[in-house]
Amino acid sequence: MTTVNSIPSSISTERHVPPFGGFNLTLLGIEMKRRLRNRRNVIFAMVLPVAMFLIIGLQVKDTPLDPSHPISAGGQSVSAYIMLSMAVYGCMITATSAGGAVAIERSMGWSRQLRLTPLSPAANIAVKIVGALVLGAIAIAAVYIAGYAIGVRMDVGIWVIGALAALLGSLVFTALGLLVGYLVPSENVMQFMGPAIAFLALFGGLFFPLDGWMKNVGVWTPTYGIGEIARSPLTGADFNWLALANVALWLVIFAAGAALAFRRDTRRV
């Protein structure tokens, strides 16, 4: 006769979710070490925006942004405009790298292992978002240092607002990276994201001001709104509510798409 041992009443079989869904500094530290260990992505995210800024910005460092207000009279150079654009571009690159990380985790079975832990999906996504923001801040700092080195001088408020706009706007591209990461196999993520980011930067007005038919196309891209907000304190333009609506709309679209893709991936695994 088989005897079935009952579980003592003192032992709970319930699965307790840790505070904040499992989000903690230890998990964030592991995520950051894994990101920084990928030297190719780090160098690409830090060096490329700085290199492009120097290639473009050095040529126009003595060109006033407003011809009626020369640099010698306290005006800003076109280099300042390019610097803020490249800071946004650097954040775009670092933000979308979250998609590559998700795709690699899925291919290695790490996502499956995480689902066996008390870590909630929201906390897992939050760790990747914070990691992307940290790398984005490093990318902004690298571009800003290069800008200051070649002579860019602005009011402190312009530096700060430009950095905050680029950093917070990068949430749009973090959501895009997560969406692609849950839809595309790991070996194809960066092959897809590389040209996509370059296209969005080009038609979003980060490499040069848009005009004509390119502007008609560019105003619908997610990059356009972020760039306009980041540069508005420098250009002195009135706050563009349409640019803010552009950022908010694309953030909702990409975040909703990433959530749906995540649920589909959870059901499949």
- Shape verdict: elongated
Helix content: 55-70%
Weakly predicted, low-confidence segments: none
Q: How many strands?
A: 0
Question: What characteristics describe this protein?
Answer:
269 residues, mainly alpha, single chain, 70% helix
Outline the fold blueprint.
Layout: H1 25-37, H2 39-57, H3 78-108, H4 110-114, H5 121-149, H6 156-183, H7 189-203, H8 213-218, H9 222-235, H10 241-268
Helix pairs in contact: 1-5, 2-3, 2-5, 3-5, 3-6, 3-7, 3-9, 5-6, 6-9, 6-10, 9-10
Characterization of this structure:
With 269 residues, the chain is mostly helical. It has one domain (21-268). The protein is built from 10 helices and no strands. It has helices at 25-37, 39-57, 78-108, 110-114, 121-149, 156-183, 189-203, 213-218, 222-235, 241-268. The radius of gyration is 22 Å and the shape is elongated.
